[in-house]
Design a protein that fits this description.
Blueprint (H helix, E strand, L loop, with lengths): L1 H19 L4 E5 L4 E6 L2 E7 L21 E9 L7 E4 L4 H10 L8 E3 L9 H4 L9 E2 L2 H10 L4 E6 L1
Parallel strand pairs: 1-8, 6-7
Antiparallel strand pairs: 1-2, 2-3, 4-5, 4-8, 5-6
């Protein structure tokens, strides 16, 4: 009987409360290969990530396979991506563009948090054990669903080495 009361009364409220929880910041620690969803200064979700194939250092130009470092904004969601859902990171910012101009290169762009390449979700366990993106931040598809629900457009993201 106690289990039935829990299922009928408590479980729906827990699910509803979870739907209301939103991240007020996303924090990425590249060296740890971790993405954290933050609310009120405290992490409430943690995900293992894969980065660009050359992850050390800040992204400087298109094709360098680096993931940017710094403060950005998650500025739009893309459900029709070549990868299972994607949330765009506002790279390059004005400083990134200026730095690339000084080097005479394109800063690149289309940096996202995304799931697995469409049609390859079965590689989740393998693909999350090494860095394989062109500079994006990759998670498992089920984790991307969670992130998608917890993060709204306009949420700041901080990416640290």
């Amino acid at each position: 009987m106690n289990k039935l009361i829990f299922i009928i009364l408590i479980l729906p409220s827990l699910c509803f409360a979870n739907n209301l929880q939103k991240a007020d910041m996303v924090f990425v620690k590249k060296l740890e290969r971790k993405l954290y969803l933050i609310q009120n200064g405290k992490p409430f979700r943690e995900y293992k990530i894969a980065l660009g194939g050359n992850p050390t250092g800040h992204k400087q130009q298109e094709g360098d396979q680096r993931t940017p470092e710094g403060k950005y904004v998650l500025d739009y969601k893309k459900s029709d991506s070549a990868f299972y859902k994607a949330i765009h990171i506002s790279y390059p910012n004005e400083k990134d563009k200026m730095d690339a101009r000084k080097l005479g290169v394109s800063p690149g762009g289309a940096i996202m948090i995304h799931g697995q390449k469409n049609g390859y979700s079965w590689l989740n366990l393998i693909s999350q054990s090494f860095d394989w993106t062109l500079g994006c931040i990759a998670v498992k598809n089920a984790e991307m669903d969670e992130i998608w629900g917890f993060v709204k457009v306009g949420t700041p993201i901080v990416i640290e080495p």
